[in-house]
Each structure stands twice: as structure tokens, then as C-alpha cells.
Automatic annotation (TrEMBL):
InterPro entries: DNA/RNA_pol_sf (IPR043502), RVT_2 (IPR013103)
Domain Reverse transcriptase Ty1/copia-type stretches: 11-253
Highest taxon in the source lineage: Eukaryota
One Pfam family of this chain: RVT_2
Name of protein: Reverse transcriptase Ty1/copia-type domain-containing protein
Length: 505
């Protein structure tokens, strides 16, 4: 507590002023916790003085509170580029990051017991800088960091505002900011040391060395690239569910049944169900193959039934048997953007809405995927498939813009593989009839990209349609085949060589 208090005083977080009779005070409290290492063992105790943001009203006590967060796709693209160019990838941590943000609103806080100024014990703290817990703290820190890196030559990415790009001659550097964690990759070690020195001159920073553990994801280097795994996080979910020693399942989803809201027996503890579902949503980051069933159980968070909890338990049983699995990123070509799109037409038993899904590869590396129920029903299968293609094309436009900013532009057309012949025909032929009038905007958007040569929609046989794993339950053999094609496998020490994705010719 003394160390934390001294750090706040040294940072000039507040100044003591006489108490104003009409002043509104922000409550504060001490938070005690301990930090763990990547293997789950104890690292150190941590104490923090935080403000109570619940007592603040947006528009009264603070204005804008939104702070950008780096997208998972952006992280994986930057890592793929760094791998392909053999660039160093470093991990930095900013100490007391939120305390660096300047507070533009007037805010008062009482002095804490045991830390009152002996000369002015009745004075109050007028905050100059933000505290952890305040609604505007994250935004204030982000703005402070963004302004500083702009002053040393970095520019904002328009595609992802938490990505900062430095380009000068042959020197290239990328900064990915996620709250107080920073991934820095540069074209040379000399440039890395120079940038780290500049950041350290402004913020109290801890150098964590080459990237090994980031946002609960363990990063292992091997001969062909990186292995990303969430084993520790998965074990914590199993412990929370009381299934740490459960029997493993062969697949995470039943191939026969569809989850429905019309079930007779309500689950006894909805809060427990919602907590586990929320935890599984983060587990998708390195386990894309469970995206379909996780989004299915997410649809029933308000009124969970026993049937839905049984589906959740099957996911956890499958995770138990694949704890050591993770996502592989390889050194590969950055000139090809390939995607697979599929849709389960009318698959929802309650609303008959379709569930489209897609996955996108940059070279051999998976970086983007989705499984999400459509907001409205589709009248026929080609419409459901076509709307799925439209989602892929929209994502590819964003990806191409991001790669252009990263100076890795793609000059080839994005390949979109689909197994529905009618949807492929609609994408390239100016046919408009009664059945397609209501999806005219989607049709014109995709056709324009196809006509300009930015996108090619191609047919793929069902046996090679990897996107099936995002739209429906599959038999164990087919599921494992598609899972391997996504790049999700055992750690390098447990496999013989590196198996690349089987590309349909």
C-alpha cells in the first residue's frame, strides 16, 4: 500500500485543496490481489487504489469513455508478418498505465485513512490524472499513449486504432496496444531498442523480453513459426465448472440435435451458466473449432435449460481431452488471401434463421473466422449462402485495407470458396428476378467486387469445405480433419513435423 501511495504521489495524480461545500466526491477503495506466472504459480502480491466508477454518471462526471481495443485478427496478422519477415517480437508492460492519463473533468476524492497529510488532514484530493476504476480511465490512458507515439513518428492505423505503424526508409515497426500490454515488432534489433528507450523515457515500463505470454495466451516458438495455446485458461474454466477430472468427449457438439428454447426443464443456476458461457467466448481465440456450438449456447443465456447446460458440458469435456492443443502460425507467403464460406439454411428450430460461418487464411495462417446466426430468415438456401459470402467479402475488404497500411498489400484477388452453385452464379451474373429482389444490396456489393477483380467466388466440394465446422455438428473423423486444416493441433514436440493446410486445387 505504501509503494502504491508513493507511486501516486510521484505521478502527481492529485493535489490537496480545501474542501468545497458543493463538491461531489468519487469513492475509492484498496484492492488486494496476487499475480500468477504463465504456469499458474505465484509471482507477487499487488495492491491498487481504485476509484468507484459506479458512482459516476456519463455526461455529468465524465464525457466520452470508449477506448479502442486491438482486434484478435490484427494481432494474428501482425504476428504472421513478423514471422514471414523474421522480425523480433517483443512484449512490454506499462506499469500503472491508467495513472498516466490526464483527467480533464473536475473530480474530488477523500484522503484515505492512514495516508492523510499531517499538515492538511481536512483537505481533499483534486484529481489531475485518472485512477483505475474510473469510467474514463481507459480512454485517458489510450489518448496519452497515442499522442506520445505519434510524436516519435508512429501513425494510427485507420483499420484498427490500437495498431500504430512506423515506416521510414527500410525501417518498419508495429505497436499493438491492449490496455497496458504492448506487442512491439520491428525490422531490426537496433530499431527495437531505440523505440523501447523512447517509450521508457515517458512511461514506467517493464521489458518482458521476447513474446511468450500475452493476454492469457502462451506463445511457444518452434522451427517453423509460433504455437499459441490457452491451456492455463482452459484449466481455470474446467475448475470453475467442477469438471477438472471429467471424461473427455470426441467432439464438442452432437451431430444430430439442434438446441431449442422450447424445453421443459429450466437450469437451476442461470448465473453459473452465463459465467461459463462468457468464459468460453474468450477460449474461441485459439480454439476456433468450437465457435459454432459456443454461439449456439450463447443464444440461450437469458433462459438456459438443462439441455443447454448438457451441451456446454460436452464442450468442456472435449476441451478436457485437448488441453494441450493450440493454433499454429507458420512462416508463409503473404500474397494469398483465401476464405471458405458456408451457411446452415434454416437451422434454428425456433426461428428458422440460418447460421453462416467463414474462415480466412493469409498464406497458411488462419487469422479470422465467424459463426453467427443471421438476423432474419432466408427464403431459400442460395440466399443464406449468398449472405454468408457477403460477410466474407466485407471482412476481406477490411483485411486488404489493413494489409495496405502494413505495407504488405495483396495484388491477387481474394478467393472465396463456397459449395452452393446458385450463390456462385449470383455473384458473377447480372440476373435479377423475383426471388432476389429483397437481397439486391448484398448482390450488388459482391458483384461489384467480383467485376473489379478484387474477389473470385469459386466452387469447392463439400468434402473440402472447411467452413462446415462453423455451421453444424460433424462426425469425429471429418471434424478432426477440418480442425487440422484450421491449423489447430498439438504442440510441436508432440507432432512429427509441421502439417500444413490441405488446399483444394
Amino acid at each position: 500500500m505504501i509503494d502504491e501511495y508513493n507511486a501516486l504521489i510521484e505521478n502527481k495524480t492529485w493535489e490537496l485543496v480545501p474542501r468545497h461545500p458543493d463538491a461531489k466526491f468519487i469513492h475509492s477503495m484498496w484492492i488486494f490481489r496476487y499475480k500468477k506466472k504463465s504456469d499458474g504459480s505465484f509471482e507477487r502480491h499487488n495492491t491498487r487504489l481504485v476509484g468507484d466508477g459506479k458512482s459516476q454518471q456519463v455526461g455529468v462526471d465524465c464525457d466520452e469513455t470508449l477506448s479502442p481495443m486491438v482486434k484478435p485478427s490484427t494481432i494474428q496478422i501482425v504476428l504472421s508478418i513478423a514471422l514471414s519477415n523474421s522480425c523480433p517480437i517483443h512484449h512490454l508492460y506499462v506499469k500503472n498505465a491508467f495513472l498516466h492519463g490526464d483527467l480533464h473533468e473536475v473530480a474530488y476524492m477523500h484522503q484515505h485513512l492512514g495516508f492523510r497529510n499531517p499538515v492538511h488532514p481536512d483537505y481533499v484530493c483534486c484529481l489531475n490524472k485518472s485512477l483505475y476504476g474510473l469510467k474514463q480511465a481507459a480512454r485517458a490512458w489510450y489518448q496519452q499513449f497515442a499522442d506520445f507515439v505519434s510524436s516519435i513518428g508512429f501513425s494510427h492505423s485507420k483499420s484498427d486504432h490500437s495498431l500504430f505503424i512506423y515506416s521510414k526508409g527500410n525501417d518498419m515497426a508495429y505497436i499493438l496496444l491492449h490496455v497496458d500490454d504492448i506487442i512491439l515488432t520491428t525490422s531490426s534489433d537496433a530499431l527495437r531498442r531505440s523505440i523501447m528507450s523512447l517509450i521508457a523515457s515517458k512511461f514506467a515500463m517493464k521489458d518482458l523480453g521476447p513474446l511468450s505470454y500475452f493476454l492469457g495466451i502462451a506463445v511457444m516458438r518452434h522451427a517453423s513459426g509460433l504455437f499459441l495455446c490457452q491451456k492455463k485458461y482452459a484449466e481455470e474454466i474446467l475448475d470453475r465448472a467442477g469438471m477438472a477430472s471429467c471424461k473427455p468427449a470426441h467432439t464438442p457438439v452432437d451431430t444430430n440435435s439442434k438446441l431449442s428454447a422450447s424445453s421443459d426443464s429450466l437450469y437451476a443456476d442461470p448465473t453459473h451458466y452465463r459465467s461459463l458461457v462468457g468464459a468460453l467466448q474468450y477460449l474461441i481465440f485459439m480454439r476456433p473449432y468450437i465457435s459454432y456450438i459456443v454461439q449456439q449456447i450463447c443464444l440461450h443465456m437469458y433462459i438456459p435449460m438443462d439441455e443447454h447446460m448438457n451441451a456446454l458440458k460436452q464442450i468442456l469435456r472435449y476441451v478436457q481431452g485437448t488441453l494441450h492443443f493450440g493454433l499454429h502460425l507458420y512462416k508463409s507467403s503473404l500474397s494469398d488471401l483465401t476464405s471458405y464460406s458456408d451457411a446452415d439454411w434454416g437451422g434454428c428450430p425456433d426461428t428458422r434463421r440460418s447460421t453462416p460461418g467463414y474462415c480466412m487464411f493469409l498464406g497458411d495462417n488462419l487469422f479470422s473466422w465467424s459463426s453467427k446466426r443471421q438476423p432474419t430468415p432466408s427464403r431459400f438456401s442460395a440466399e443464406a449462402e449468398y449472405r454468408g459470402i457477403e460477410n466474407v467479402v466485407s471482412e476481406s475488404c477490411w483485411i486488404c485495407n489493413l494489409l495496405l497500411e502494413l505495407h504488405c498489400s495483396i495484388h491477387k484477388a481474394t478467393l472465396v470458396y463456397c459449395d452452393n452453385v446458385s450463390a456462385i452464379y449470383l455473384s458473377s451474373n447480372p440476373v435479377q428476378h423475383q426471388r432476389t429482389k429483397h437481397i439486391e444490396m448484398d448482390i450488388h456489393f459482391v458483384r461489384e467486387k467480383v467485376a473489379k477483380g478484387h474477389v473470385r467466388v469459386c466452387h469447392v466440394p463439400s468434402r473440402y469445405q472447411i467452413a462446415y465446422i462453423f455451421t453444424k455438428g460433424l462426425p469425429a473423423v471429418l471434424f478432426e480433419d477440418f480442425r487440422d486444416n484450421l491449423g489447430v493441433r498439438k504442440p510441436p514436440a508432440m507432432i512429427m513435423g509441421c502439417i500444413k493446410r490441405v488446399i483444394y486445387p
